[in-house]
Amino acid sequence: MIRSILVGVLCGISAITASPVLRKRDFPDPEPCTGNCSWIHDPNIYKDSNTYYRFSTSGNIAIATAPSLTGPWEYKGALLDNGTKIIVDPHGQDIWAPNIAKIGDMFYAYYSVSTMGSQASQIGVATSSKLDPGTWIDHGSFGLPHSQNYNLIDPAIFQDSDNGPLFLTFGSYWNGIYQTPLETTDLISYSSGGGASLTNIVRNTTVGMDVVEGAIMFKWQTKYYVFFSAGNCCAAPPNLPAPGREYRVMVCRADQVTGPFKDKDGKDCLESGGTLVLGSHGDVYAPGGQGVMVDEGKPVMYYHYVKPSVGYAADQFFFGFNYLDFSSGWPVVV
Ligand SMILES: *[C@@H]1O[C@H](CO)[C@@H](O)[C@H](O)[C@H]1NC(C)=O
Ligand SMILES: *[C@@H]1O[C@H](CO)[C@@H](O)[C@H](O)[C@H]1NC(C)=O
Ligand SMILES: *[C@@H]1O[C@H](CO)[C@@H](O)[C@H](O)[C@H]1NC(C)=O
Which positions carry the signal peptide feature in this UniProt record (predicted)? Predict the structure, then answer.
């Protein structure tokens, strides 16, 4: 009690004295959201004709739909009604960070099963010919090999062009983000060559580094971008990290889908490089778990964030999105 009152007072003082100085960079507020916009972690959106499907962490992968990105979002049910076949911890596991792709006529939902701080994670896959709850078939583990170098979380599939080569990124805490090519024959059960084809593409090598996870690939014009989340995703007062070390969205860019990825200053993203796309600002704290899509011809980044004025609990994470301007060659939130 006493501690939380003290922290409240201290935060109040530092906010008043420090905000004009610390506010190096302003970001626009998230676009409006109506309907079910909270308890959202790691959103992933798939637009199927005129309906937006939003998938998110927990609740056996929550599915909501809306007629536009602004909503109204309506909760529809769970992707995995009966949970997953994967058991990494019978008592504490959760299903995280779904990622949905349509390959041929089939939808694939990649997901991770883990517990906080554990490396015994697994990436699983489910399929459906539709996107709705009740239509998905769980295939359990995708079969990526375990390694001390990475954590099997945060899968994201990327297709270079229609019918072009497929890649899966994942990870990670530990050594950051990995990428592997996939064959269309491999989409339910990984078999393409074991460890040799798993490539580290983003890594923070700084001592006491911020974790790097939640990567997704995106192509805009001729360049390949990897967006990822860095820092502390889920702290609450009085245990907040130093300002700037909370969750934030970073980006690296390459001329080829497999890299090498560099940041805006030319720094190698295997050597701690990364350019900030969206950080905390105003009443937006620790944005991350992002995805990027093209909507009505415009690139959009969506993400989850915390509103300090509301709270920091799991059910107080909000869904947000902003348009991106790539005219400089680098994504700028507008
Ligand atoms: C909103 O969606 C979440 C899952 O994302 C679900 O747990 C919750 O029940 C939904 N709320 C309502 C009012 O439907
Ligand atoms: C979930 O389990 C129930 C009871 O075993 C079963 O009736 C139902 O078909 C299952 N749902 C799916 C999607 O497998
Ligand atoms: C790497 O970690 C350092 C130390 O925590 C941090 O200052 C830097 O922003 C991180 N870089 C990236 C790309 O996240």
Answer: 1-18
* Residue of minimum CA distance from atom 8 in ligand 1: 75
The set of protein residues with a Cβ atom below 6 angstroms from ligand 2 is 81-82
Q: Whose CA is nearest to atom 2 of ligand 1?
A: 75
What residue spans define the domains of the chain? 15-333
**pTM higher than 0.70, yes or no?**
yes
C-alpha 274 to ligand 3 mean position (Å)? 8
Fill in the amino acid letter for 228: F
Strands, sheet with 248-254, edge to edge from the N-terminal-most edge strand: 212-220, 223-230, 248-254, 275-278
Location of structure tokens 């019918």: 163
- Atom 10, ligand 2: residue with shortest CA distance: 82
320: phi then psi, degrees, rounded to nearest 5: -135, 160
Q: Provide the pLDDT confidence category of residue 25 given band limits of 50, 70 and 90.
A: low
Amino acid at 189: S
Q: Which CATH number fits domain 15-333: 3.40.190.10, 2.115.10.20, 3.40.50.720, 3.40.50.1010?
A: 2.115.10.20
Confidence of residue 16 (pLDDT cuts 50, 70, 90): very low
pLDDT at 196 over 90: no
Which of 25, 200, 207, 209 for a ligand 3 pocket mutation test, highest count of atoms within 8 Å of Cβ?
A: 209
Is the minimum distance from the CB of 211 to ligand 3 under 6 angstroms?
A: no
Give the whole-angstrom CA distance, residue 77 versus residue 61: 8
Single out the residue of 272, 234, 268, 241 nearest to residue 254, CA to CA: 268
Statement: residue 326 has pLDDT above 90? yes
Q: Relative to the CA of 82, which ligand 2 atom is closest? A: 1
Tokens, residue 124: 């699983």
Ligand of minimum distance to the alpha carbon of 85: 2
Q: Using an 8 Å Cβ cutoff, are 251 and 274 in contact?
A: yes
Total number of residues shown for the chain = 334
Per-residue DSSP letter, 72: -
* Beta-bridge partners for 321: 302
Is residue 96 within 8 Å of 55, Cβ to Cβ? Answer: no
